Amino acid sequence: MKNRMQRSNLLVTTTLLGFIFTVANSMRFDLKSGRTKCISDDIKSNSMTVGKYSVVNPNEGYPLPDSHKITVRVSSPNGNGHHVEEHVDSGHFAFVASDSGDYTTCFATPDHKPETVVTIEFDWKSGVAAKDWSKVAKKGQIEVMEFELKKLYDTVTSIYDEMYYLREREEEMHTLNTSTNSKMAGLSFLSLLVCLSVAGLQLWHLKTYFERKKLL
Fold it and tell me: At residue 8, does pLDDT exceed 50?
């Protein structure tokens, strides 16, 4: 009974980890000549991020034509370039995020007549998913269960950091909402005061007009 429970727990843990670690920005998309496509990912500061991209050769077995060479640029939320490659068919990048925010990877294709379609494969991982766990297991020569627990620990740590980051963002939004509500309340009071002042001036003007015409 005890062995069954241990096997069941191990199966659940492995399944959960398998689900968590497959969550990554792995995609394949088409891009026409002279077009640009940008992909963003919200990355926390001090998080590792790695990316790999390649152009699918439309004529397998033959050299890739120049019309299918691309320009790739990876930039931070502040616009700083972390990776720039021009006229390439494949490449990769890896860096540690210095700031929290949206990091952007842009792919651009050259102008070509007639118009062609370039197919690009892009794999982008960050945080725990960016770690090469196969090398960690081989280097440390650790047991399977210890290896899974290490992955689970790092995953829980990553989730905790993400929750803390979201809490900070929520507090910032709460402060912004409070400030906005206060300003709106002041603006509403000022609008009411202006309306009352205008109404008072209109009544005073009408009263003066009727007195002048000796209607009152």
Answer: no
- Residue 46, sorted as left (phi over 0), alpha (psi -120 to 50) or beta, turns out to be left
Adjacency order of strands within the sheet including 36-43: 36-43, 101-108, 70-75, 81-88
User: Domain of 33?
Assistant: 22-141
- Compute φ and ψ for 199, nearest 5 degrees: -65, -40
Residue 24 · residue 123 · CB < 8 Å: yes
The number of folded domains in the chain is: 1
Specify the DSSP element, H or E, that contains 131. Answer: none
In a domain, 71, yes or no: yes
Q: How far is CA 43 from CA 3, 93, 102, 170, in A?
A: 41, 15, 6, 16
Q: What whole-number percentage of the chain has pLDDT above 70?
A: 78
* CATH code of residue 99: 2.60.120.380
3-state secondary structure of 201: helix
- Is 102 a domain residue? yes
What H or E segment, with its residue span, contains residue 85? strand 81-88
Instruction: Give the least confident one: 69-73, 83-87, 154-158, 210-214.
Output: 210-214
Check: pTM over 0.70? Answer yes or no.
no
